[in-house]
Amino acid sequence: MRSVNAQSPVRIAFIGCGGVADFHAQAILRCSAARLVAVSDRNVGLAEDKAAAWGAEARTTERLLLSDDIEAIYVLTPMESHIELAEAVLKHGKHVLVEKPVSHDLEGIRRLIDLSGQQGKWCVPGHSYLYLPELARMKRLIGEGAVGRPLSMFMSEIYRMPDERARLYHGPSIEVLCHQIYLMIALLGVPRRIQAFAGTIRRELFPDGDEQVTVNAEFESGALAHLYVSWAGEDETSDPWTFKLKMLGESGGMHFSRRDQVNGSAEIQREYPLYLEMFEQQTEHFICRCLLGEEPPLSTMTDALRTMEIAAAVRRSFINGTVEALTF
Prior knowledge:
By secondary structure, this protein is of the alpha/beta class. 37% of the residues lie in helices and 22% in strands.
């Protein structure tokens, strides 16, 4: 890939100023090698407010794409518009980071892969957890055989999604499970078959029945994985599985919890600093290593394609009651 000018901060723009944009903006503001230049949003007032807060300029999307002072664009819109916007960014000769989930349009993801190569520009999925040092280390150590041959992976993400917010989103099988899947691919590869189950206690909010989803995966190596996501309740037990990943091998194991650091108490809003840190680490890698150093991302758009192919198989499995063989 062709890199950008290394003599000055990489000039970044956002398309989309929703909630996740706040985390990306904070990460860029902490990265000396990058500068947030401009933002756009269908809600012009929101774009203007966010631009003022972040020290950027509000522009139309069309102007962003045509601007010579922008080198890379983050696509932070709802998933349904990701492919169209990312294609436009690449065609206008700019690098692009696409928030997760990238898209259910698998052919669209394949087009992004081809177009990225043709244009010589990075097209990177927002698979942010892999950039946390703890999880990057886990991937490296497994690859080095530090815990022996992998045997099993257990991963969960559990929290209560309030009714008013649940109405704004698709279910966790669409919005959240991609995190677990791309981490599974990074640590174990693509499974040969999966089986999934879903359940809901608030069916009026989750018509597909996927308020909580569990996935079992089997690998050619003999390893197994169990993934679980839930918007149905909180885990306030002595060993909370709010966001936890455990890997076991023949001669050792590794563990990560997003609650290894917690700021606040039961009386005030808790904060999980590792959540923001993953955006900071992703930004550092994308800017300093991919755009300036020409190193590959830790998760590629091909990984995003495999993630969404598996996500589609998960939904087929819990909707149809099938075991899905994965042949890609």
